[in-house]
Design goal:
By secondary structure, the chain is an alpha/beta fold. Helix content is 37%, strand content 20%. It starts with a strand and ends in an 8-residue tail after the last strand.
């Protein structure tokens, strides 16, 4: 039975109710500082750790629980007679439960004006020591570092005659070691990012030592191919609007490729304004469109490349209603993502149980870093979050764009950002008309994009084209203009920019530079 609990928490969420429940089960309460005062002020009988050890807190609270009467009571193995005899000799009672969460180090260093001194004082010492001691001796000590676990522990104690199962003890111990590792990792990341002047204002974006931690969501059936194993992990911190926040409403278990493609679809559709639909196949958009509603956006996106859309991933940035569901259900779809699904839409997909429906709240959060694994190392970079606005376009051709051309160029540019390099995207009237992706030659991407439009019986006359990087020669421009494009947007920056601009003027087309490249590898 749990007879004595030590409670010392920075995050006091739910701790009063938890302590009251423990007291009602005759568990003695030990506590420190502000936690002890809060419990006592609310009528609970609680012993201050200083009174318990006979040694006062000292050094401005730096030393509170670092005492043999605390750690002896935690670390003693109850099944070792020599341990229990040592406790009896030194009059040390056992501590059967430890409830601790740590100083808010990460919240402190996240403040713009955080000084090194403030960061140092928010490095917890006694808390991690108690957590690690308790987790090491989890067979005999229940350890809790997360308020979300209070309810489960109380339920087991109430039904288990004051005890908690070994399975729960072990799960809580694993959680503690992950928590303390993440805490120490955050300290290392912060300190190793500070330069010689040790000023927070000059904190490096990329620390000398990098610690990352993720929580496993699930094992995959396999990876990109059946002979590869795989798993999906989620960030410790929730990112607003990120794919990892999905709620699966129905369908088969997600695969490795499903998640990778779903992320590409979701990031693209989040970047578009108005009712938008994105269809992804093998990490590339094969159809993107704006519409008056979900059904209209889907119908236009499907037009771009209905052949490639077969077995694709579809994302919408608006609620899927019955009308849209009826249209989508006619096709073979692997995954459908949206902020919401009406009851009517869910009813439609009941007959298509293999379709994975993912509900995700829209948001504009992004990962702190993009990460790519290479042999023996990692590549880190800031996410490609730059959104070029129409006012930033620099028209370099003699011909000026019409409002419609400017709108089409803007849409094409937004889509090109999510197409694998080399990327060429034809657009018109709020929809993609042809997408050329992932070719070693930009000219080949341009040819493929025009062929895709021909295959879908879509006219490229009067279309706008976006290129994710500059045209190194005029040949790529010649291909898109001969296919029907009358406006082109590209980053610029080539040694032969003037040659390409002259070619645009020669053929009477609009050309604008963004000054921003969107390589996507």
């Amino acid at each position: 039975m749990i007879k004595q609990a030590l409670i010392s928490v920075s995050d006091k969420t739910g701790v009063l109710e938890f302590a009251k429940a423990l007291a009602s089960m005759n568990v003695k309460l030990l506590s420190t500082g502000g936690t002890a005062r809060m419990l006592a002020d609310n009528g609970l009988e609680v012993t201050e750790v200083a009174d318990y050890t006979g040694f006062p807190e000292m050094l401005d609270g730096r030393v509170k629980t670092l005492h043999p009467k605390v750690h002896g009571g935690i670390l003693a193995r109850r099944d070792f007679p020599a341990h229990m005899q040592a406790l009896a000799t030194h009059d040390i009672p056992t501590i059967d439960m430890v409830v601790v969460n740590l100083y808010p180090f990460q919240q402190t260093v996240a403040k713009d004006q955080c000084a090194l001194e403030d960061a140092i004082e928010n490095i917890d010492i006694g808390g991690p020591a108690m957590l690690r001691s308790s987790a090491k001796n989890h067979k005999d000590v229940v350890v809790i570092c997360d308020p979300l676990d209070y309810e489960q522990v109380l339920t087991e104690m109430q039904t288990g005659q004051g005890d908690v199962s070994y399975e729960t003890r072990f799960a809580l111990a694993k959680k503690v070691f992950a928590h303390t590792a993440q805490y120490d990792g955050a300290i290392t990341n912060y300190l190793s990012a500070l330069g010689p002047d040790r000023q927070h204002a000059t904190r490096a974006v990329y620390p000398e030592t990098l610690n990352l931690q993720f929580t496993k969501v699930q094992d995959m059936r396999y990876g990109e191919n059946p002979h590869q194993s795989a798993a999906f992990y989620r960030d410790i911190a929730t990112i607003d609007g990120a794919l990892a926040n999905y709620r699966q409403l129905q369908g088969k278990e997600l695969s490795y490729n499903n998640i990778a493609d779903a992320d590409a679809a979701w990031e693209c559709v989040k970047s578009l304004e108005g009712s938008a639909c994105v269809i992804i196949k093998h990490a590339n958009p094969c159809g993107v469109a704006l519409g008056v509603d979900a059904a209209d956006a889907y119908a236009k996106a499907l037009q771009t490349d209905p052949t490639s859309a077969f077995g694709g991933i579809i994302a919408l940035n608006v609620e899927v209603d019955g009308k849209a569901a009826e249209a989508i259900a006619k096709q073979f779809v692997e995954v459908l993502l949206a902020p919401a699904f009406t009851a009517e839409a869910c009813k439609v997909f009941e007959a298509k149980q293999n379709v994975r429906l993912l509900e995700i709240s829209l948001g504009h959060g992004s990962n702190a870093f993009d990460i790519k694994r290479v042999g023996g190392g990692l590549l880190l970079q800031a996410p490609d979050a730059k959104q070029v606005m129409p006012a930033e376009f620099v028209v370099v051709s003699k011909k000026q764009p019409t409002p419609q051309q400017l709108q089409d160029m803007m849409f094409a540019w937004r889509v090109a950002k999510f197409v694998k390099s080399n990327a060429i995207v034809f657009c018109g009237n709020g929809m993609t008309l042809g997408v050329g992706a992932g070719q070693m030659s930009r000219v080949d991407s341009a040819r493929i994009a025009s062929i895709k439009a021909q295959n879908a019986n879509l006219s490229l006359a009067g279309s706008a084209v976006a290129s994710d990087a500059f045209f190194p020669f005029r040949d790529g421009l010649d291909v898109v203009v001969s296919a029907g494009a009358t406006a082109v947007v590209q980053p610029g920056g080539s040694m032969r920019d003037q040659e390409v601009i002259d070619a645009a003027d020669e053929q009477g087309v609009v050309m604008a530079f963004t000054g921003v490249r969107h390589f996507r590898h």
